[in-house]
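dumping this here so i dont lose it
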């Protein structure tokens, strides 16, 4: 048992170490690495995001959004499978604009602030092929977004959405490249008999500049390909991130600047947070 405990501690440290660039990527990136957290390990991440000039086209609200604690948990169920629970956060919008919108009549928001729980996302990631000398590692992720945030608060859509993505990752010397390509099935918040299927994408780079120190960047989002106007709330959306990470043992600190790639995603923003990995159990 003592030997297993030592092995678990070493595995957790190796997971977050820059000397092991094949490890799964975490905050502040959202692009999913095909590598999983590891059998019996639990990854906990939390932080705070702030976006300026965010727009909600379904409710007609707009303003500056703060999200905290941005809590996410990943559990290594096997050497190749990982369970994920994300979206455990509270969103607070400092309202700077109100315009007529499809569901603005349902709003129950007084004053200049709206507050709501974020939609919970439950997912699973599976590594399909390990990284080889020439070929990248491959994985698959599927997830469901639950309608925790309601229309009455102005920050949610009251829809249940599904996401599926193919993941690829390759390490070249001290740089990790990760690419995601998938589909999102998004419900129409104004009708119960219509949906919009949009391609999703993500591309990230993590470069080690010193032991335990990385520069990271990415572009991630979705692209509407529907002819004509898409259902409200399912338009193209995306953001770019540029930041850094510092790893000390099983803990990683991160920070990044955000830039919205679509009008509804806000103009600029920032995020700070941490990631912690520990061994929770051993599978026989």
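and the seq i came up w/
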């Amino acid at each position: 048992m003592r030997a297993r405990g030592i092995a678990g501690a070493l595995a957790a440290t190796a997971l977050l170490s820059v000397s092991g660039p094949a490890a799964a990527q975490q905050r502040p990136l959202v692009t999913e690495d095909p590598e999983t957290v590891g059998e019996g390990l639990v990854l906990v991440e939390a932080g705070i995001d702030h976006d300026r000039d965010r727009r909600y086209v379904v409710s007609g609200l707009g303003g500056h959004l703060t999200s905290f604690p941005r809590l996410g948990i990943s559990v290594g169920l096997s050497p190749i499978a990982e369970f994920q629970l994300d979206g455990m956060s509270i969103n607070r919008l400092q309202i700077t604009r109100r315009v007529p919108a499809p569901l603005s009549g349902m709003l129950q928001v007084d004053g200049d602030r709206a507050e709501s729980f974020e939609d919970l996302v439950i997912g699973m990631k599976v590594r399909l092929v390990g990284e080889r000398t020439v070929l990248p590692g491959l994985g698959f992720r599927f997830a469901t977004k639950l309608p925790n945030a309601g229309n009455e608060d102005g920050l949610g859509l009251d829809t249940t959405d599904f996401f599926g993505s193919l993941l690829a990752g390759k390490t070249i010397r001290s740089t990790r490249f990760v690419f995601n390509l998938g589909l999102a099935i998004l419900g129409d918040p104004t009708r119960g008999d219509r949906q919009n299927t949009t391609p999703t994408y993500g591309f990230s780079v993590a470069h080690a500049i010193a032991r335990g120190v990385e520069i990271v960047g990415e572009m991630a989002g979705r692209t509407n390909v529907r002819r004509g106007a898409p259902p409200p709330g399912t338009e193209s959306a995306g953001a770019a991130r540029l930041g850094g990470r510092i790893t000390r043992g099983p803990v990683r600190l991160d920070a990044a600047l955000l830039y919205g790639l679509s009008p509804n995603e806000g103009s600029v923003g920032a995020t700070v947070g941490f990631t912690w990995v520990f061994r929770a159990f051993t599978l026989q």
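DSSP finds one helix and 13 strands in the chain.
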